[in-house]
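Q: I have 156 residues here and want to know how they pack in 3D. Can you give me a structure?
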Amino acid sequence: MQLQIEIKKKINKCGLFVDKNIPFLAATPDGLIEDDKLSISDKKLPYMKIKNNLPTLKKESHYFYQIQGQLHVTERNICYFFIYTPNWNHLEIIKYDDEFWSSKMESSLKLFYEECLLRELIDPQFIKRMLKNDIIEPPHIIQNIEEFKKKKSIKN
């Protein structure tokens, strides 16, 4: 594995981690590094920005959110975010940000579970006719979808 060569540390395979305090949250990191750090590798580039002539993961990207979630659930402090391409590699060390988790993620994930997933688990609507329209979305979700569509149409 290219990341193991880059950081000169063993990466152990791992499975599903379940959050100790919020048991409906879970994470599956790519691996755990021998000195108790989290390893994630990916090839996605559109979520990078250039800072000091180096690519850096944008805090707005879903990868940053994913990494913060994985760090939180696994109770790790550091992620080795590794980008591997045939032409070049880039390693970025991303630290767990408790403030980001608390302010941007935790309440939103709980709300999504309680208002969207739990409702569908208890009384599944989608499986009755297999139509997306049968899923009942809470008003704030519909509003967020509309705002996202507006932003997307402005960019295009």
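Q: Anything worth noting?
A: Helices lie at 2-7, 62-74, 98-122, 126-129, 139-155. The beta strands are 11-12, 17-18, 26-27, 31-33, 37-42, 48-51, 54-57, 78-84, 89-95.
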